[in-house]
Amino acid sequence: MKTTFRDIRDALRARIVARDWPPGALIPSEADLAQEYTCARATVNRAMRELAEEGLIERRRKSGTRVRDVPRRQASFEVPVVRREIEATGARYAYTLISRSVELAPDWLRARLNLDDKTRVLHLICMHFAEGLPYQHEDRWINLTALAQAEQADFSQAGPNEWLLATVPYTDAEISFSAISADQDLARHLGCAPGDALFVAERMTAFQGQSITYVQLVHQRGHQLRMRY
Amino acid sequence: MKTTFRDIRDALRARIVARDWPPGALIPSEADLAQEYTCARATVNRAMRELAEEGLIERRRKSGTRVRDVPRRQASFEVPVVRREIEATGARYAYTLISRSVELAPDWLRARLNLDDKTRVLHLICMHFAEGLPYQHEDRWINLTALAQAEQADFSQAGPNEWLLATVPYTDAEISFSAISADQDLARHLGCAPGDALFVAERMTAFQGQSITYVQLVHQRGHQLRMRY
DNA sequence: CAGTGGTCTAGACCACCCA
DNA sequence: GGGTGGTCTAGACCACTGC
Questions:
Q1: Per-residue CA distances from A2 to A6, A7, A37, A154 (Å)
Q2: Residues whose beta carbon sits under 7 Å from strand D
Q3: pLDDT tens for residues A208-219?
Q4: Contact B176, B201 (CB under 8 A)
Q5: Does residue A126 have a pLDDT over 60?
Q6: What's the CA–C1' distance between B42 and D8, in Å?
Q7: What angle separates helix B41-54 from helix B5-17, to the nearest 10 degrees?
Q8: SS3 for B139?
Q9: Interface residue B193 vs chain A (CB under 8 A)
Q10: What is the 3-state secondary structure (H, E, C) of chain A?
Q11: Residues of chain B with C-beta less than 8 angstroms from the C-beta of A226
Q12: A25 contact B CB<8A
């Protein structure tokens, strides 16, 4: 059995967690570790690069590698696509288009998406259901200047998210999470009481510097976003 | 100027985004690309490994590398430490301990943390302020079986999060986000109206298989968690 | 079986940056 | 200036898996 970079990475991580090298301590150089583990320096490099990505250590040329005083912890999660999210639980997915209209972008939207005056946008409101129960309320705006084809697309059978993914797959996005109180409309669609606290995701996506879409996704009462790290 | 793995990675990404290779398409093999870009295969490998981590492509031995039909998008964010989060905005941070008690773990907590019967826990309630305004309400439980020292620690000046980070820096954690309505107590501490929708983070952390702590962090009204991807 | 990605090696050169 | 990490190369062997 040869020593792999995984072995070395795990061994180093174990020594860090055991405080063999306490927070702030300097770790031996790549060359030294390569000798200790009888492997090439590139192998040690790969191992330590991964630990650096994990946020456990901090590397600098010349000064060497240190155990971070406070480990940098980052959590990540897969950006959900509502249909898959629902089907992954084994539930039946259903979709309804509630309204569709073409409008001039309202001021707040122009400000968020950095749109010109008089930009036309497609405004869609939809609902997503899991096993027949309301799951998510989607309020979406699509920039028709950037994506004129959207005006001809049929959103009566499938949600705009799936159409967008197929049409503009490679976007930059900003996402934010917060809480809002259900108004009359949301309460009716989501089957909760007005005033109930609801979990909201908002997303803006851009492609090649142009804003494509803004969406507000309001989840059913009690919804949680979970992840490990 | 030599060709670096970054150059190759960016060039390949550009070709994918330009649909030079459309979703689902097979990308040339590492060996072919190495020839095309006049570099070593290891360099192409590094470039493509990063694209795979980004979720743009999917690699399999023998069958080769494909552009993902739907790119796997994952967002990541740095797990916030409230004091830093506040100080990063330039605001003054303040902390108050509201209550401290040692109790037997209630049933719901025993279930969540998988604790034995009659486990003693330290229960802390604290507030974090930004520029004098309520920012976050912290309701924390620490497993005294796993971390007996916590009983002697002084939480009147600094929050338990910082103490825990210094004491047990390398933990596994599960985090979840949701929305709740403010009850009387939360409303009073956070300076909002009862019933207001508030953004909540909950976190459970473990070390070496033992549950260390559970915390509920309720944020000021209107708080958002933002990230790009 | 054979083609593809996954990894290791030994050596090399370079960029950075602390002393 | 010199030590450290960052990266590239050329070659090699292996693991996986579709044919």
A1: 11, 9, 11, 57
A2: A 27, 29-31, 41-42, 45, 48-49, 52, 59-65; B 2-7, 38-43, 46, 60-63
A3: 999 999 999 999
A4: yes
A5: yes
A6: 8
A7: 50
A8: strand
A9: no
A10: CCCCHHHHHHHHHHHHHCCCCCCCCEECCHHHHHHHCCCCHHHHHHHHHHHHHHCCEEEECCCEEEECCCCCCEEEEECCCHHHHHHHCCCCEEEEEEEEEEEECCHHHHHHHCCCCCCEEEEEEEEEEECCEEEEEEEEEEECCCCHHHHCCCCCCCCHHHHHHHHCCCCEEEEEEEEEECCHHHHHHHCCCCCCEEEEEEEEEEECCEEEEEEEEEECCCCCEEEEC
A11: 174-176
A12: no
Is the CB of residue B181 less than 8 Å from the CB of residue A197?
yes
pLDDT, average across residues A141-164: 96
| pLDDT tens-digit series, residues B46-84 | 999 999 999 999 999 999 999 999 999 999 999 999 999
C-alpha dihedral (B50, B53, B55, B59), degrees to nearest 10: 80
Q: Which two tokens stand for residue B22?
A: 């459309």
User: CB pairs below 8 Å between A and B: how many?
Assistant: 127
Query: Distances from the Cα of B22 to the Cαs of A22, A166, B47, in angstroms?
Result: 49, 11, 19
pLDDT at A145 over 90: yes
pLDDT given for residue B172 in this prediction: 94
Q: What is the mean pLDDT of residues A151-162?
A: 95
Residue nearest to nucleotide D14 (CA to C1'): A2
For Cα atoms A210, A212, A213, give the angle at the middle one, nearest 5 degrees: 145
Question: Which residue type is seen at A190?
Answer: L
Structure tokens at B151: 């009983």
Q: Which residues of A touch B198 (CB under 8 A)?
A: 179, 197
Q: What is the pTM of this model?
A: 0.92
Residue A205 φ/ψ, nearest 5 degrees:
-125, 150
pLDDT more than 70, % of chain B: 99
**Predicted pLDDT of residue A3:** 82
For residue A121, the distance in angstroms to the closest alpha carbon of chain B comes to: 23
* Amino acid (one-letter) located at A208: Q
Task: State the pLDDT confidence band at A1, using cuts at 50, 70 and 90.
Answer: low
How far apart are alpha carbons A2 and B6 in whole angstroms? 29
Provide, as residue numbers in chain B, all residues whose Cβ is less than 8 Å from the Cβ of A223.
178-179
User: CA–CA separation, A174 vs B76, rounded Å?
Assistant: 11
pLDDT above 60: residue B130: yes
pLDDT tens digits, one per residue of A23-80: 999 999 999 999 999 999 999 999 999 999 999 999 999 999 999 999 999 999 999 9
